[in-house]
Amino acid sequence: MGLGSVGAKAQTESRQIQGFVVDTAGTRLKGVTVRLTSTQDTVTAITSNAGYYRVKDVKGSDIRISYSMLGYQIVNRTLSSQNLSSFIVMPNVVLRPQSSLIEGVYIVKTIPVVYAGDTIQYNMDAFNFRANSLLEEALKQLPGIQVSRDGTVYAQGKPISSVQVDGRKFFGGDVLTATRNLPADFIKSIQILNHRDDHAIDRGFTAEDPEKILNIVLKDDRKRISFGQLTGGVGTRERYIGSGGFNRFDDGQEFSLIGSINNTNTSLFSFGSPTGIGEREKSLFDVNDFVDPTDGLNNIKSLGFSFSDNLGEHTQFNASYSFTRKENVTEGNSILSSDYVGNRIRNKEDYVITNNDNFHRLTAELKHRFKNHDILEVKPVFSYNEVSVWNRRTRLVENNNITNDGKYRDSSSHKNPNLDLDILYAKAFKKQGRKLLGSISFNFNSQRKLEEVWDYYVSVDSTPVDPIISQFEQRYFIQQRNGTDGARASLSFVEPFSEYSTLEFLYNYEITDMTTQRIVEDKLKFREPDDFFYVDSLGVNYNYRFRNSRMGLNYQYTPNKTFKANIGFAVQPVRLTSFLPREDMQYTYENVNLVPTAGFKWKLNDEADWSVDYVGKNNQPNLLHIIPIRDNSNSQNIIVGNPELKAEFSNRISTTLRKFVTSRGQYFETNFAYNYVVNKIVSDKKAFSGSTIQETTFKNTDGYYDIKWYYLFNTPLFNENVQLDISGNVDYYNNLSYINDKRNTTRQFIYSQSAQLRYTWSDYFESMFNANYLLNNASYTWPISTEITGHSLLASAATKSYLGEHVTLGTEVSQRFNSGYASSFMNINPTIINAYLEFSFLQNKRALLRLQGFDLLDKNKNMGTYSEYVGNDIYEAKNNRLGRYFMVTLNMRLQKYPKKK
């Protein structure tokens, strides 16, 4: 839901206002007179035994509320018109004894929420944050919001995909840039928006879940301000970091410039962290343990700027540019076991991967409202990625009687420019409810890849009495160009034909063209000294086109404010064609999908709603699946594309129940979803008899489905200073594959349960206790019934103490227990301990000196474990990570307010 929609509802709908009245000791007061006046209302209510009041059917604006009781001072409260919504939870109001000379509203730590359908608003003034806290730390104290170790923000169990400041994208919507740059005390409120389309909120045809957007509303006196920070730090093991940032807000005009250089695995665009510690600067309330989750050792250089302004009274423009250079070195080892009848192929590898990645991204957005209220939006995004990779492996591949011991080298360079352009036009009508929307999107993507592969091993066949020893070597130079061009267009017309009903006519068209050219040179063969020997069987010139259109009708029925229904039906013709010019061969697949669409939403009461939705969606195969070559650049794992693949079609039904108990400060949400895929693209593997070589191709099959359920619950315990968050999810996958032409079913069951307790005692002490349990069970049916069950239990605790006004001491401890995995290196039980000491000084505490010890027991370096169980494969790997170091950093905050006139 867009911000304009929230404001429109505030002016047209009646609203409910409720809250609590307490005394200075926090005791809820009975019998307080609550008098509300507005431009259209005059209402009086009396608080209950629990100090609770509720005023319903408020229709006017300029709302004023007075709270009075004999023996207590009268408190007055005014609600700004721009924040009005259909459901408003007031911060707790404190009545002081009559002797008090100060009038006003006093807010204690509670759950001040404006709850309006798809929008949840948090009033930041009702929470106590330490001075100089960044938004990331503040978000962790808001009920229903969690922040992971890598900076990902989750709201009501789903990740935040984009960030806005006062309704405009900040740094292209980058979440980390906003949460690690904006000070919490600049922010008036936080809005969580379920966003589908700014101009077509009620559209029934959509194959995607709404994305969650974080909108930051600045305080009125922070809309014109300049601020920034400078950070420098050095540590043991040659660790270093430097970062700087400048931001300027001027009543709608915004400019930001930020940069960072570090080798502490700081996340991309986390430049503004005052301590400069990046991913480990998470304070107390992480949803995970306290390890660094980044594999390998990284050296990162980043620079970016963002600009936003009003070009005219009805025109908005914003743009951003970012550049990141990331040098990564990852060392590790892995074991891949593949089971066949009477034959288990086991591949053990030790590897070193060096990756240099240079990434540029330029975004822009133009919004213009014409005099007739038509709207035009243009959003181009250009990116350029240049990557160099060096992959060095030693491997031992075994089956019953054959052992291959060898080396594999792979070096490649990639250049990948990409352009996306989205254009939308919304036609305005005088008739309320009538809509006409047209949009078109273009994507142009190309990739050039140069790759040199060397594969060498010594093979020992112990089948005969006298073992047979042989050598294998191949060296290829591969040149490949891929191009993907796509266009999407849609037209939607919505017409209300009764007081409660609307009808939507929808047409979508999508076309994707993919081309690939591949030339393979055998470096071990030559015809003449300066000639090249090309392997014709490995080269390809291939063209592929995916085209589909969708014509549909959608009916929406809204008889009242408590029920809404969308029922629709669409016809979707699909056509896939591919062409091999060299062989003069063409493959064609055509199908017509009949797609019913349905959605129902019930508002059970003022604090609960329930929804049920069904959507259908096409998924086209990617280039790896369809390119018709026999790629044996990895001699042990040959890939063969299948140009006759069909597009998948997924059917998803889901239901969500949400409950917000304002009288207790609680939030509950649960979701159940079932997804069934027709023509699922699956792997088809074969093992060569008497060999360690495997060949993989792809085919379509039916029978895949997955079931997912999750819940989350937040509640205060005893009082608002103790917060409990519990959540859990169950995922079940019925995966399919083919092994030696036999159908194989892999069933994977994943269960996780998490509980987190947060305690805040005054302004001097904070603590967090966390427990997570994960069960990962995988079983497959062929060639023999096999089952693996992995368990992981995490217990962690963190404390943060404020020793006076200028000294802060923090510690973090986590213990993990792993068991049940196939490889011994996966069953590790690391203990992670971090500690830091901070000193703030200078005027307004603008300087911060921090001493930190990360991973005091030096266990994080062994934590890069990964497992995957698909088909007849069991894959488990362990990578290196950043280990123990100590660091000192100095941060200086810069801030300037405009001169008062």
From TrEMBL:
Spans through the membrane: none
Tagged with keyword Transmembrane helix: no
All copies of domain Outer membrane protein beta-barrel, residue ranges: 428-833
Alphabetized UniProt keyword annotations: Receptor
Protein name: TonB-dependent receptor
Organism (species): Sphingobacterium chuzhouense
